[in-house]
Specification:
By secondary structure, the protein is mainly α. It has a domain at 103-276: Orthogonal Bundle (MetI-like fold). It has helices at residues 2-29, 32-54, 86-122, 124-138, 142-153, 157-183, 187-194, 199-235, 247-254, 263-290, 292-299. The model is unreliable at 1-6, 8-13 and 294-302 (pLDDT under 50).
Amino acid sequence: MSVALESIASAVGRRYRALRTSRTLATFCANPLNVAGLSIVTAITIAAVIGPLVAPYDPTTQDLANRLQGPSLAHPFGTDQLGRDMLSRLLYGARLSLGIAVAVTGIRLVLGTAIGLLAGYAGGWIDEALMRLVDIQLAFPGLVLALVIAGILGPSLRNVMLALAVVGWASYARLVRGTVLATKERDFVRAARLMNVSRFRIATRHLLPNVAGPVVVLATLNMGTVILGTAGLSFIGLGAQPPTPEWGTMLADGRHHLRTAWWIANVPGVAIMCTVLGFTLLGDGLRDVLDPNHETTLEKPT
């Protein structure tokens, strides 16, 4: 009898989760801006994955006889001051920029979530010490601090990644701590304590899933910020070094040819703008769907 009841409860739970997922997807797709953001991010991701495989030319091969050539059938986005194909460099740069954004955001997310979860659940002097560290980090403007760190370590993409990761984890820590403080006083967490469930199990099985939604939204929004920060540091010479086809470096190469060869700067500039816009729209859409108050609205009978 108990086995049958357990099977029925499991089936009902699966049905409820499926219905909830379908409602969530329907709500997300109902906003055209959400769909636009998802489409842009999907297109950029596909370009980053298969771009180097379909690029018509080597992104670092120079062809001085065809330098500063405008868009044509042979070179759809033209060539730069060294005769390199802009489309090929753009496709290779997509993988580089998106890969850096994923790596930096992943480091921020893991470090910030761990610190925020520890501070919120442990409380006491541990919470005070960790939050004062967060306050110190947030007291400095993020891009300025990244500029200082990258300048000290030296110009390279690895140092830029390290600098951006170091200055961005505090936002995750503060967000996770606030969510944990609100969640750990709920009835299901108190019931777990009364059942002598270990602290580690409570943190990983009960608290961590409840912070996943806000963290995913913040990570999605941060992807665009990281791409913009990487391009900015590369633009001033602290990131990727020539001939690496990074969007910020490509933009810096084109600033001297704005009147004679506008495509050199505009092609990577538009790519950066569209990518940041796509992640921003996608993050806003995920926030609307994953917001707890919005979930309550979804569960009301129609």
